[in-house]
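Our consortium's second objective concerns turning raw sequence data into structural hypotheses that experimental partners can test. To show how far this objective has progressed, the report includes one record in full. It was chosen at random from the queue rather than selected for favorable results. The single chain below, 130 residues long, was entered without modification.
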Amino acid sequence: MYEPIRTKSVHSMAAPDADTDFPHRTREEELDIQLAGHLAALLAVTDDLGLDREADRIAQQVTRLRGTQPPRTSAPADSPAALHRRALALAGRALVVAASRADTAAAILAAERMDAHTAALHEQRLVDAR
């Protein structure tokens, strides 16, 4: 009545000792990569804002996570308010990832940057209102 299955299912799991063509990363390695990316993007915006001391602190964290120094550029294309909004969003993303991987130094740095950019946006609104 039923014909027996003659081939292996394509849905079966690979043998645990099978060699694979791609490297596997741990969750911590993936979070390190993600955090370094968010901080590098925040670094670019911080450089655009001309905040050298803060940019140096962010660059130190990126170097710690990546093992190499990030490229540094400064060519602001947006208004200061737009840059502060972008930096605030990037710092928030970095804070979430840093908290997820329990990286206290990066979390503190991201939270400080969020506070600074929030204050700058409030100050910008007060200046614009005059």
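The partners drew two points from this record. The radius of gyration is 22 Å. The mean pLDDT is 86. Both points have been shared with the crystallography group to help prioritize constructs.
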